[in-house]
């Protein structure tokens, strides 16, 4: 297991909401413990056992805890309103493949405007804006899975 796979595993566990995961693959043991606090970085311990001569106990080598980089939030992004997903599902920017996107960067929106669709269990749920402003950034790629409370759009309310 390489470092990239471990980092992806850490991200997956953090998004899943699990508080503790223990995994053993071949001679590598991985323990990921997430604090109950939302947005905190999970603590990861990786122990790799090195095989030794028969009869002697196998020494364990402990790698330092892997820390995911903290998200840099500039003061400029603080003034924006984040529109979040109200459910788990698949995010779509268009009502259907042959139609135009609901909103684009730079579009002005008002409460009640449809921003996107989230498909959950074969039901397409229109996500409406609860704020007025201008779309500054689309944070999710089209046709990708989203989690509950995952940021979808940044809106400038001014």
Entry keywords:
2 domains, mainly beta, 11% helix, four-stranded antiparallel beta sheet, OB fold (Dihydrolipoamide Acetyltransferase, E2P), 158 residues
Give me the secondary-structure topology:
Blueprint (H helix, E strand, L loop, with lengths): L2 H14 L3 E6 L2 E6 L9 E7 L10 E4 L11 H4 L2 E4 L4 E4 L15 E2 L4 E7 L2 E6 L4 E6 L5 E3 L4 E6 L2
Antiparallel strand pairs: 1-2, 2-3, 3-4, 5-12, 6-8, 6-11, 7-10, 8-9, 10-12
Radius of gyration: 21 Å
Rounded average pLDDT: 77
Number of strands: 12
Main sheet: strand order: 1-2-3-4
The poorly predicted ranges are 58-71
Number of self-contained structural domains: 2
Helix-and-strand structural type: mainly beta
Backbone shape: elongated
* Percent helix: 10-25%
Beta-strand residue percentage: 35-45%
Oligomer: single chain
CATH class of the largest domain: Mainly Beta
SS summary, helix count: 2
- CATH level-4 homologous superfamily of the largest domain: RNA polymerase II/Efflux pump adaptor protein, barrel-sandwich hybrid domain
Question: Whole-Å distance between the termini?
Answer: 48 Å
Largest sheet: 4 strands, antiparallel
| CATH architecture designation of the largest domain | Beta Barrel
Secondary-structure element pattern, one letter each: HEEEEHEEEEEEEE
